[in-house]
Design brief:
The protein has 283 residues and is mainly α. Helices cover 76% and strands 0% of the residues.
């Protein structure tokens, strides 16, 4: 689900203002989450959890979506994938520093090898073309914003299920995202004319990469450990290139298969190289 984020954002930009693609998807996710929390009668989080939820919201709802949308105005989806390939490694570094998870030398070797394979693949596929310094800085900011919100959000899964974490994140953002979306729509409607493709992309972004994808993601990080589980995200960068080719017309070559096998080996190696023991998460 996350791998569709960049190409769908590129599609949505054909009919929406960059800031509206971020706030709009968050409104969709927030409304779904509010309904679900209400139906399940989930109590509000404890006071001590609101700060990590707030900073998770800054990264997941505003940081990544806005910075990526702004970057995609100046570059291609494939170019974004080149730099975003560093996200799993960035997530691991932040997790080790913030949560004091332990990682073996094999883990770091595997994480670095997988990242290098992704970057090499993206470069050979022409992912570097079309980039500029402004776009690169925006992507780097988006990568660290997303990695930080992954770590903080996953840390709260010790106290509540991952689906509740992301639900409270997008619901708490509604007082900002709803009025922002209304204002942005009124101010930009004369410059944009979204068609079916743009609307479909925005809805899919809100339902999948902004909401449902986090159900599995936070659950997986809680089970595997943030640093180790995050390496599975190397597959996201590869799939982003594949969807970019299918949705945006870029070429897919036999190199894709070789890169896929290399990344899969790196992911398996990273999991085998884990240290024996992160604490089990709370259900």
């Amino acid at each position: 689900m996350f791998s569709f984020s960049v190409p769908l954002t590129k599609k949505a930009l054909g009919g929406f203002d960059p800031f509206l693609t971020a706030t709009g998807r968050a409104v969709i996710a927030g409304v779904l989450a509010a309904v679900l929390l209400r139906l399940r009668r989930v109590p509000a989080p404890a006071r001590r959890h609101w700060w990590p939820l707030f900073f998770t919201m800054l990264g997941a709802v505003f940081g990544w979506p806005i910075l990526i949308a702004l970057a995609l105005r100046h570059t291609t989806s494939a170019h974004v994938a080149v730099i975003a390939a560093f996200m799993p490694l960035a997530t691991a570094v932040i997790a080790v520093l913030h949560t004091h998870e332990r990682a073996s030398w094999q883990f770091w070797a595997a994480a670095s090898a997988g990242t290098a394979a992704l970057v090499a693949f993206a470069v050979t596929q022409g992912g570097v073309s079309g980039g500029n310094v402004e776009a690169d800085l925006l992507i780097v900011g988006a990568v660290f914003s997303s990695a930080w919100c992954y770590v903080l959000g996953a840390s709260v899964t010790r106290a509540m299920p991952g689906w509740q974490v992301i639900s409270w994140v997008v619901v708490s953002a509604l007082p900002l995202t709803i009025p922002a979306s209304i204002v942005l729509w009124l101010e930009t409607s004369d410059r944009y004319s979204p068609g079916a493709g743009a609307w479909t992309s925005l809805v899919l972004l809100g339902v999948s990469s902004m909401y449902l994808g986090f159900f599995a993601w936070y659950r997986g990080l809680a089970l595997a450990g943030i640093a180790h589980g995050g390496q599975v995200q190397q597959l996201q960068a590869l799939l982003t290139l594949v969807w970019s080719a299918l949705l945006l017309g870029e070429r897919i070559t036999a190199t894709t298969i070789l890169a896929a096998l290399t990344v899969i080996v790196a992911v398996v190696w990273a999991q085998r190289g884990r240290t024996p023991a992160n604490a089990a998460p709370q259900e």
